[in-house]
Design brief:
By secondary structure, the chain is α+β, with helices and mostly antiparallel strands. The chain has two domains: 25-175, Jelly Rolls (Sandwich); 179-247, Arc Repressor Mutant, subunit A. 42% of the residues lie in helices and 20% in strands. The strands form three sheets. It has a four-stranded antiparallel β-sheet. A four-stranded antiparallel β-sheet has the order 3-7-5-6. Helix 4 (141-150) crosses helix 5 and helix 7 (200-207) crosses helix 8. The longest helix has 27 residues, at 152-178. It is elongated.
Length: 248
Amino acid sequence: MRVPVRRRHLRPAADAPREPEANVSRSAFPAPTVDALRGLFPALADAAPSTLARIVDHGLYRRAPAGAVVFDAHTPCAGFPLVLAGTLKVLQRYPNGRELQLYRVKPGESCLLSGSCLLGHADYTASGVAETDVEILVVPAADFHALMAMDAVFRNHVLELFGERLATLLELVEAIAYQKLDQRLATLLLAKDDPVRATHQSLADELGSVREIVTRLLRAFEDKGWVDLARERIRITDRGALAALAKA
């Protein structure tokens, strides 16, 4: 008989990977229904009903507040997370304190790195941090491997995820290799809602730079009349100038 797993603050089994942060917990709230999962993940909508039921029944439903480390580099991968709400950012951390954001995982999306680690039977090589309060449903490793072998829709979802994320990472590598930091900053600002509500440090993290350099560039943009700076807010005043710089 299967034992339900959705309980408040269950202790992990002795051989289970340790949670990176104490405030990443299994929630007392129920996991999504099969219909809700099908609506949130269109790529899985045509999966066999037994596949969706297995994901819901066996999945570990977890909630984490903004800033919590959901998984950390050099730790085992316990499962394949499906993001139900909020945003998870996957980043590379370096000994000098710098960070490089690799990609974000939004509602209705899955984590490429987790899938890669499960398929390669390897530890995480980067960290996953809750950018906002997040809710995730983690497909246990054994179920992930079984579904990859048994369900073509689930398998195609994972493989398509690899293709999409690989393209994103290649764009990031190209930007770092060939674009100047001011061009990348202009591109980043234009991609966000106006006004941009972010700290200089968070922008630096996304760009793989340091806060002091980003602050200097933003002040240069302000001196040129392109942006208006305030605390944790950047209002774009000349979108055309930023667009021209981004394409230069």
